[in-house]
């Protein structure tokens, strides 16, 4: 690649606007093209459009432009795989926003495409890169906590009905059909990253409480998907998917054989550590609260200060460039990424099948993949509003006529639909 500069194309310019800014600033990368068919979304990045970035409104022209070596997929949640496959078939590396894949068949297809094309795929999962999670990872890797036996991951992001409508313009917008388990990566990925564990099975029960969604077109009456994940080593993790109960925040907890740690509730910058009184490691105290750092090295630690999502967005861009230009493999390879999608998909099935357990396939194993290659069931609707499977634990739940009317009025007033 020319002068060791990674040329980046960004698809979708709402969330994608963050990556336009990051890759323009990151040493050794520059954004050469963007694609969005909605002029309103392009306004989000108008300050970068000084002629040096080509603008496309059509993915096929964008991906065939020859203007970039790597693409960042920030398009609709349920359409990442078709675009990732098209990109890799043209030799273009992929950084994909969550979710990695929508169906079990897509999980298989994504792995096979990476293997067939030799392209690099990384998930743009930013929450493992909060300072608290990087601090916990360093401490976990030191071995002082012993093996993790039980972990918890909460991602709780309630919004007002008005904000929900602004984020989900249109009856068929993906955010109106998003099963709580499908937004799994922000609660689960940090736990896998810290412990290095891999998933073995999942079961799930949803919290059905549609009361706070009045006045929206949201088809999902669940406010959380409580998933119990078993890891390959027999340890357990409890995660929420995207929950929406009262009190916004993220919380991660690692319970080990000799001690436990968690971010102090309400902060991403402090970690509370507690060891058993009889095996406090030398130089540590039984209970302590420490300021979290992304890296111990001060120069590294400063790099992401001020970046979005607790600095996590910066580290996604940083590690993607490292992968493409220096071949440094990130934690969330295609196999680990799709295993989280599989957990999300099977958890939804579990939630309306009495909480039964599903085994998560090993996506490095072609024999196991074969069993799922034709499982294309999706809870997201086609253009007529029909879906293969329910998106809610209560399959008959639907907003009322008044809810839809209010959402439609708000979209009209905001010029969104
Ligand atoms: N990791 C995070 O912290 C984080 C935060 C926000 C969003 N996201 C993810 O980013 C993705 C995008 O979400 P969003 O918030 O930007 O909202 P969104 O999905 O409503 O916006 C997607 C944008 O892509 C454009 N787009 C979609 N399909 C296109 C196509 N075929 N051709 C051209 N343009 C197209 C749309 O016009 C829109 O501007 C989702 O997958 C979401 O999960 C991640």
Strands, count = 15
| Rg, alpha carbons | 21 Å
Q: Helix and strand succession? A: EHEHEHEHEHEHEHHEEEEEEEHHHEHH
**What class would the helix/strand composition place it in?**
alpha/beta
Features of this protein?
nine-stranded mixed beta sheet; alpha/beta; 417 residues; 13 helices; 22% strand; binds nicotinamide-adenine-dinucleotide; Dihydrodipicolinate Reductase, domain 2
Short précis:
This protein has 417 residues and is an alpha/beta fold. The chain has helices spanning 16-25, 39-42, 59-63, 80-89, 104-117, 131-141, 161-167, 185-195, 298-303, 312-326, 334-351, 366-370, 401-413; strands at residues 6-11, 29-35, 54-56, 70-73, 93-96, 121-123, 148-156, 199-208, 222-231, 236-243, 249-256, 259-263, 270-275, 287-291, 358-359. The strands form two sheets. It has a nine-stranded mixed β-sheet, with helices on one face.
Describe the structure.
- The protein has a nine-stranded mixed β-sheet with strand order 14-13-12-11-7-10-9-8-15, covered by helices on one side. Strands 3-2-1-4-5-6 form a six-stranded parallel β-sheet, sandwiched between helices.
- The chain is globular and about 60 Å long.
- The chain is built from 13 helices and 15 strands.
- Helix 5 packs antiparallel against helix 11.
- It has a domain of 244 residues: Dihydrodipicolinate Reductase, domain 2 (2-Layer Sandwich), CATH 3.30.360.10.
- It is of the alpha/beta class and 417 residues long.
- Bound molecules: nicotinamide-adenine-dinucleotide.
- The site of nicotinamide-adenine-dinucleotide has 18 residues, from loops.
């Amino acid at each position: 690649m020319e002068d060791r500069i990674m040329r980046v194309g960004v698809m979708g310019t709402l969330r994608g606007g963050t990556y336009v800014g990051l890759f323009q600033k990151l040493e050794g990368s520059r954004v050469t093209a963007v694609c969005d068919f909605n002029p309103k979304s392009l306004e989000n990045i108008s300050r970068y459009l000084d002629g040096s970035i080509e603008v496309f409104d059509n993915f096929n022209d964008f991906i065939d432009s020859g203007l970039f070596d790597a693409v960042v997929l920030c398009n609709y949640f349920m359409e990442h795989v078709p675009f990732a496959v098209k990109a890799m078939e043209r030799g273009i590396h992929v950084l994909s926003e969550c979710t990695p894949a929508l169906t079990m068949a897509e999980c298989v297809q994504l792995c096979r495409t990476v293997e067939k094309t030799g392209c690099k795929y990384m998930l743009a999962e930013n929450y493992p890169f909060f300072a608290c999670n990087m601090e916990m990872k360093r401490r976990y890797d030191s071995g002082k906590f012993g093996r993790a036996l039980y972990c918890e991951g909460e991602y709780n992001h309630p919004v007002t009905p008005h904000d929900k409508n602004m984020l989900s313009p249109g009856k068929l917008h993906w955010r109106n059909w998003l099963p709580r388990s499908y937004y799994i990566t922000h609660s689960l990925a940090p736990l896998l990253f810290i412990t290095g564990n891999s998933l073995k099975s999942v079961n799930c029960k949803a919290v059905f409480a549609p009361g706070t969604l009045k006045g929206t077109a949201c088809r999902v009456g669940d406010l959380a998907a409580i998933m119990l994940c078993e890891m390959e080593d027999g340890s357990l993790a409890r995660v929420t998917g995207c929950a929406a109960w009262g009190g916004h925040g993220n919380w991660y907890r690692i319970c080990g054989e000799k001690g436990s740690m968690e971010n102090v509730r309400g902060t991403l910058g402090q970690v509370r550590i507690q060891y058993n009184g009889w095996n406090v490691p030398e130089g540590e105290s039984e209970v302590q609260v420490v300021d979290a750092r992304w890296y111990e090295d001060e120069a590294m630690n400063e790099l992401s200060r001020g970046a979005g999502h607790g600095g996590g967005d910066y580290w996604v861009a940083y590690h993607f460039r490292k992968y493409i230009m220096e071949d440094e493999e990130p934690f969330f390879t295609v196999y680990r990424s799709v295993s989280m999608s599989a957990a999300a998909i099977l958890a939804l099935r579990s939630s309306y099948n009495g909480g039964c357990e599903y085994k998560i396939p090993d996506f490095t194993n072609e024999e196991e993949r074969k069993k799922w290659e034709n499982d294309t069931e999706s809870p997201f609707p086609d253009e007529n509003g029909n879906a293969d499977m329910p998106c809610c634990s209560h399959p008959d739940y639907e907003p009322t006529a008044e809810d839809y009317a209010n959402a439609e009025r708000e979209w009209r007033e905001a010029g969104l639909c």
